Amino acid sequence: MCTSNACFTLHMDKVSFEKAGQSCFHNGGYLMTVRNKEEDHHLRSLISLIQKEKNLKFWIGLKLHKGDCVLADKPLRGFKWTSGEEDSRFSNWDKEPVDTCTERCVHVSYNPRNRNVLKWTAGACKIPTFYMCKFYFQGMCGSLLLLGSGDISYTAPFSEEPLQNEIKSLPLGTYAKVTCGDRESHFSVCMLSDDKYQWTVRGPFCKADYGKCASDNGGCEHLCQEDSDQVRCLCNQGYTIEENGFSCKLQDVCNVDFCEHDCILGESGHSCNCPVGFKLESNQRNCSDIDECQLPHVCANHLCVNTHGSYTCACREGFRMFRGDCLDSDECVNSRCEHGCLNTMGSFSCYCENGFTLSEDGYSCMDVNECATERCQFRCVNTEGSFKCVCPAGFHSDATGIDCVPDMTDAPLNDATQENIAETEPTVTQERRRGSTPLPRVVTVTPINASLASSAKVVNSRVLICVLGSVIPLLMLVAATLGIAVVRCHRARKEARKTTTDSYCWVASGLDPRLEKFYESILTDDL
Q1: Total-model pTM
Q2: CATH number belonging to domain 6-136
């Protein structure tokens, strides 16, 4: 089969992928490519020429080379065209290739019951399979014309045998052999001449004999008409004369763009056909897109995106495509979270360390002011991510770091401590309403001041003990001294009465001078 710039051949001998590629290369081409919908259409047109009613497989030029790996996110899944052409966006996989880095080759499967569905499958490269070749050419020549009975055989440069099918465009280098009845044959070659691709001998060939309608209908298939000195063949209604001038064929309305896409000419007439992904409209000529996303079980539970003539499956946000399935994406790998990230199915969330809270943007963390809860007994100082409690002089933090306890010392309280304690005394507030009896006094004691008052009582008790401990010994010493002085004075008075001396009482030295004066005054009073 040939198009305007290429020819395609189908080979019904089973060989390995490597031998199939070598066969195509030997004839000047390469294994067939299916890079877009147009080439996919050529593939289906070529396979439609097969008359066998059984499932067949054909190599196409798509291969995963040794050392390359399957890439699930690429249309060709990491495979490459053996023709050396760039990767294409078009793909038609029947099922996802196995995840591997070993050599794999692609074939298409043909089912006679569904000729328009030619899905790709990757498999081992050494399995014997049919194959198809593609040949590019610089130009084409049209088919030659026969005016009389005869036969033309074309041998293309990519084939050693004459072409079996009737081809309207023949590639550069095609060799044509023309035989008219029992006469000598003619030869012609498609060449580039005068900047045009044309035959070396243009024809037409095999001119009709004169006055032969009476004999064998002049060689005409339908009607024979003699015009002056030559025979002219005509066709019945609904048929047109072929290029040989004798045979008739069904009128080809497909040449007048009757169908929007494919026009199929059969024994009973013509019919229009639409490519895969389209359906024939009610006028039996135009094709409209099929919304595959409306069909059941398409893309399973994934997202379906309808395209012109096809569809694609996509994953929801937070998921990624892998071998046809949507797997959860770990957003925490490249997260914007300031402290920590927690991955969830299809999403993620940020969290902060102790002492911080998540800001409104959901990513950054802000310091928490723990002092707003008044957890400290005296004074609270907020820090980055935490806090600390401060105690006044004479106190220190307990094991919890929150409450304060007095220092274990007998030293009296200094002025600073007394001032701090005085500042934390309970405050008493009294509220009086106009025109009403006085309300009872309300004493508001915060937990912090109550604790401070209790601590102050303990301090006062200790100070009192210290004072008493110092005064009592002194008082006992004074009492003993007074007792001794009284006893001596009494003895001295007795002795004075017995003697003729004066009435003065002398007290031995060693006492405090103040006590001696005190004793003298007593003796004077007695005298």
Answers
A1: 0.39
A2: 3.10.100.10
